[in-house]
């Protein structure tokens, strides 16, 4: 027996319609070289609707790809809303990638056109001839346009020339809405394609109390760039909730962000741990802040302490591009005992409503949620992908398991569903048939008062197979502790056979484009040491 | 271009799986004649899964209808989860209906079997022979079973006899999950059929901060019966969020509910205004309470004052069975100025994310959201129906307008999306070509210190077409004010031509099965007065 519900496709048109209709009184504030730009969500929505006409004018077909090369601004948000709502696919290119990676992604995604911030035309100029797109549109942000792009059409001109009503391709729920490439720590970057329905449901889940809890009462600062999994989906969530959204542009120093929080009375902001560390060290008035959204990498204990000291809620999420990205969430309140096992850095909370998790052991058997068994975390859900963009990608076989995504994370799950990350499957060190958690070693090393950061990898060993090797960065202005001292420190904190073969002080750790430790590089460095 | 997301049908199996997996530590507490029953959400989920086997044993086919006649208990919640997850349809019959209405509904819904609380077998006994079902199953709640049902199978016996794994029909997102009949103030009750996907999305929306904000941190008391639009969908929401759920059984006096809030440390409860008035007048310790969920009828100002005095948030919703029921939500905090126009009793907040609204004028044109124009409120969304159960129902034409539900409410919408209810289209009084709001007159009369309640209807008038007539109930122990006094009172509060032709003191107002004023009955009474 079928129910008789209305036909109501879950697409980003719903989100666009929502911000236009209920967003007459809430602002989108964008910081740029020309100063802050303020407009209502309704205005942003009206402009996003006109992008359909711009794409028609540019001759982008239904399903065509539109690359962006931009900082977080209202223009970038307009593209993230308007391109999919117009039946095309938006692809945010990470502006911090190498020349080669940028050219690869634009070609691989088969982008038809590219929208670039004026302030980023200089970065793109050397690649101009290699960019495999038909048109480049320059978005005026108050910066001069590099001469290489001087003849390109301007975003405001195109938007202004469109006479609504515009011709539109109506998207379907399973149509592609956006493409984002994974950071590629395991090999070449892989294209993740999100559907409209997945994007809508993911946004709705981010409005739930136990997840990101984004509400109309909030003022949300989206520090995480749009080219990082659509700023964790938060611009769509803000559009749907009618939340005031603050977009920092390129200025993401602690001082710039602190000033923005102070002036816009931001209540919640999203960033990776390193950004939060800089931000909280800044002297601005952050008294409007209520919640810290943090993900992308494990948050050090010192950050948790500082957040608690300020009376804020720390929202610690786990996820990945393949999950758009929300997978789990834990809220640490100022009342949480940070020394309790449940609040450990490795604990990432329960699955976001809608996401299903399971643990799978080395032999492929499902493991119990007993807080003891360690297996690979696998996920299913309405916003989890089942394959990558490239049908030829080997990962389409290796990263999926009978309908589940293999997340590549080793974890335990407690009986109440709380997930504890043990390591990345590719980072875990297999030594004499046993597992050594690089993550646990890194945390134990970082806990030393003279160590700011630590990264641990496995290096080949003729007898054990692999043995751990560590690189450490000393705290600012300090001297790195000796290997003997660190081994003694670790001796009381990890099993004896986990002690690293080498502990090398370095000035800085190699990182990927999204700020994670680049363990491929480190492994080569330490194996050769 | 299609996205490559996982196949993940949104059905109540997802909710069932969720409460089983993450509900090992949160309770479902049911009050019954035998005292409180405590079990975890996981246990409730495990039992719900076994219902598939029970229905197989009873020979209920895929899509078959399962009626319930029960108070709010874990058994009733198990049926609301387990029956749809097993590919059948659950139909909660309102236990307060007349004999005739009960028999009509069970026959009209083509219910195959009926599950009845032992404590309600006495109520059903006179109807035993007329009940058009193949089997009746008795749910033991500690009360004696009426002899008319002495030979019926018992719920626990059936549940205990099922050996998992059970054979199962896997539901699809657009399969019917539950049937609920409207209260029928406009004619015979109409069957509303909810799909699985609609139920899941509605639950997710109830977890969002700006809607019901149900979280795992809450303790939720579901006072609204399951046979009233599935207790507003809150049991599904609680199952999904892993929220401790308290079910009061048949004892819903202010004192019984107060005691339950005190003992279970309830943080949020859902009920109609009259129940809240009784509850807050009770002397129990309600200090655990944080939010008051209220709907079904306009809340009187005295209730809002009392909620604010206690420092609670008043969540004022508007909706209807055809919307499962969530349509809009407004949160009044203790800081809200209840004298401000935005906090008026008639204001019901903004559309719940996912729901779209429009205003349509008498000529069928869409009206602006300017806070002035009055039109019929129409709605669309993933949890709004497009037709009633009965394909022959005239309402399938009259209540829908090109893909939108005609809600039958007259309203204004402010530019920021805030909805103000003006009246029911069927209750509004058409006098000399102008509209008089029965709702506004009722509120003005109720505001008089000696008036507890007031209901206003239109009565036929040879010259004006219709004129307003009022019935009032005096405050407890008080004398009703004279008609002259009330007309003087109204004179400063409503336009002169709105003044009622008659104001009749009555002992109590006629009400429908769900507690709304029965204006059909009142119209007859006052027209004949």
TrEMBL record, chains A, B:
Checking PROSITE patterns in the record gives: AMP_BINDING
What are this entry's molecular-function GO terms? ligase activity
Q: Name one Pfam family in it.
A: AMP-binding
Q: Which domain of life is it from?
A: Bacteria
Residue ranges crossing the lipid bilayer per the database entry: none
Q: Does the keyword Plastid apply?
A: no
Which EC class does it fall in? ligase
AMP-dependent synthetase/ligase domain mapped to chain residues: 24-389
Q: Where is the AMP-binding enzyme C-terminal domain?
A: 441-516
Q: What is its EC number?
A: 6.2.1.-
What keywords are assigned to this protein? Ligase
Q: Does the keyword Ligase apply?
A: yes
Name-wise, this protein is: Fatty-acyl-CoA synthase
Gene source species: Kutzneria viridogrisea
């Amino acid at each position: 027996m079928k129910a008789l519900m209305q036909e109501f496709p879950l697409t980003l048109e719903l989100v666009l319609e929502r911000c236009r209709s209920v967003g007459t009184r809430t602002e989108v504030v964008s910081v740029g070289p020309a100063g802050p730009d303020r407009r209502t969500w309704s205005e942003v929505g009206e402009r996003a609707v006109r992008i359909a006409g711009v794409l028609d004018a540019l001759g982008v077909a239904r399903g065509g790809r539109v690359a962006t090369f931009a900082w977080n601004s209202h223009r970038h948000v307009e593209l993230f809303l308007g391109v999919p709502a117009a039946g095309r696919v938006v692809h945010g290119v990470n502006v911090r990638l190498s020349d080669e990676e940028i050219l690869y992604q634009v070609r691989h995604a088969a982008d038809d056109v590219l929208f670039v911030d004026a302030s980023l035309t200089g970065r793109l100029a050397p690649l101009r001839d290699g960019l495999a797109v038909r048109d480049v549109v320059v978005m005026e942000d108050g910066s001069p346009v590099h001469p290489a792009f001087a003849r390109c059409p301007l975003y405001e001109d195109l938007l202004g020339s469109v006479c609504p009503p515009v011709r539109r391709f109506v998207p379907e729920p399973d149509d592609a809405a956006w493409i984002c490439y994974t950071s590629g720590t395991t090999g070449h970057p892989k294209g993740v394609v999100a559907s409209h329905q997945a994007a809508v449901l993911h946004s709705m889940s981010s409005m739930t109390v136990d997840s990101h809890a984004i509400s109309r009462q909030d003022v949300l600062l989206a520090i995480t760039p749009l080219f990082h999994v659509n700023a964790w989906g938060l611009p769509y969530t803000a559009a749907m909730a009618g939340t005031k959204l603050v977009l920092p542009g390129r200025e993401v120093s602690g001082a710039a962000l602190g000033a923005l929080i102070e002036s816009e009375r931001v209540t919640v902001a999203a960033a990776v741990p390193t950004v939060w560390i800089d931000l909280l060290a800044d002297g601005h008035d952050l008294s409007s802040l209520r919640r810290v959204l943090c993900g992308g990498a494990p948050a050090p204990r010192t950050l948790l302490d500082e957040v608690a000291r300020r009376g804020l809620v720390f929202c610690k999420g786990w996820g990945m591009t393949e999950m758009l990205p929300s997978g789990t969430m834990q809220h640490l309140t100022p009342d949480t005992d940070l020394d309790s096992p449940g609040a450990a850095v490795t604990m990432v909370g329960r699955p976001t409503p809608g996401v299903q998790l399971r643990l799978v052991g080395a032999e492929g058997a499902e493991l119990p949620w007993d807080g003891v068994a360690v297996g690979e975390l696998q996920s299913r859900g309405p916003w989890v992908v089942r394959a990558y963009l490239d049908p030829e990608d080997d990962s389409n076989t290796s990263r999926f398991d009978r309908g589940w995504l293999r997340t590549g994370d080793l974890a335990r799950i407690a009986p109440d569903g709380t997930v504890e990350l043990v390591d990345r499957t590719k980072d875990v060190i297999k030594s004499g048939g046993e597992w050594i958690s690089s993550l646990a070693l890194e945390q134990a090393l970082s806990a030393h008062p003279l160590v700011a950061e630590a990264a641990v990898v496995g290096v080949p060993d003729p007898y054990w197979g692999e043995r751990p090797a560590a690189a450490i960065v000393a705290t600012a202005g300090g001297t790195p502790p000796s290997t003997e001292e660190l081994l003694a420190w670790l001796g009381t904190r990890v099993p004896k056979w986990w002690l690293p073969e080498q502990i090398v002080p370095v000035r800085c750790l190699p990182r990927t484009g999204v700020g994670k430790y680049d363990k491929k590089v480190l492994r080569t460095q330490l194996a050769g040491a």
